[in-house]
From TrEMBL:
Pfam family, one: PIP5K
Subcellular location: Cytoplasm
Principal location class: cytoplasm
GO CC, any one term: plasma membrane
SMART domains xref list: PIPKc
GO molecular function: 1-phosphatidylinositol-4-phosphate 5-kinase activity; ATP binding
Stretches assigned to the PIPK domain: 32-400
Biased composition (Polar residues): 1-21
UniProt keyword annotations, A-Z: ATP-binding, Cytoplasm, Kinase, Nucleotide-binding, Transferase
Region named Disordered: 1-34
Protein name according to UniProt: PIPK domain-containing protein
Lineage: Eukaryota, Metazoa, Chordata, Craniata, Vertebrata
Tagged with keyword ATP-binding: yes
Gene: pip5k1bb
Amino acid sequence: MTSTTENRNTAVKQNGHNGEGNSREKTYKKTPSSALQGSIQLGIGYAVGNLTSKPERDVLMQDFYVVESVFLPSEGSNLTPAHRYPDFRFKTYAPLAFRYFRELFHIRPDDYLYSLCNEPLIELSNPGASGSLFYVTSDDEFIIKTVQHKEAEFLQKLLPGYYMNLNQNLRTLLPKFYGLYCMQSGGSNIRIVVMNNVLPRSVRMHYKYDLKGSTYKRRASRKEREKSTPTYKDLDFMQDMSDGLFFDAETYNALVKTLQRDCRVLESFKIMDYSLLLGIHNLDIAENENELESFQTASDGKRPGGQKVLYSTALESIQGATKSKESLGTEDVIGGIPAKNNKGERLLLYMAIIDILQSYRFIKKLEHSWKALVYDGDSVSVHRPGFYADRFLKFMNCKVFKKSQCDQSSGGL
């Protein structure tokens, strides 16, 4: 998930995170975060650099199943540089296929390398119960997330269908996957995926929601609410914004159409338990708080001539290339979707469908069965993919997103 939350440097002890004595540094599978970050950057630097020597060609079916591997000893080798981390092996999955995906979104190899390898990665706190580590690049372009073996395996199986879907339609709120890798060291396998960043750090999110269209235990915990930027859930949204969010007709239609198409794709892959991550930036509150600087780029040291990744923002994901930015008067608006609340306040929405690497396997069927015994089965989070998609869409179209009564598609929002 691409999802992002506030920086947190304390060690944690849950779901694969292990605190190391009194150290403040996180570890993941007994690997210190600093070593993991450095190894990831070295491995990706080698993998992408090595890929530049391979000629451009069409992606073939066998390309989805290729795994390339390189050993990077700390003392260096003829192929790899010396480094200060323990020896490790770095695997790159389907390198030609992921190169194709990056090219679809106009991500040049040098931009990809610069973003991921030139500056230290920024560690983010875990927004959910998955136990994953999240990093964001200093230029705000990419999220790096650790994934479990089953998730990585499922993504590999999805790649041919993912390729077909992107070829038919680039307008999607599904995650944009740019790379899948595995770092092996000390007997541990740490798998990571590189994705688009959904919530830019340089724009303050006044509200954040993780929405599934479910009401069973879908309220943020007390611990979550104590965070500086908590992520709320479905029942919280219905309480906070009972009237929903309003769009001009053109934007509403584009958003609903994109969500419908994405949900049908997920249903066809037998995927369920995904969420809509929704960040809300209130322009009127920001102006009152003198936060207009929130539209500035995340880093003053942004590379000269660096290009913005196309189709990676929420607005571009539903419209294609942004049509107009005159209504907000700046080119630094980072792709938010314009909307209003019931008070008429101007909003920018940032959203994506996240956590799609869950298939409706036996364990999920079992989970739904016992939950249904103690609660209304139609309201629990885990459900068969078709029902899940229908309920998700109904909630988004009826409770969350609404067409403005007064159509202001000419720019009134």
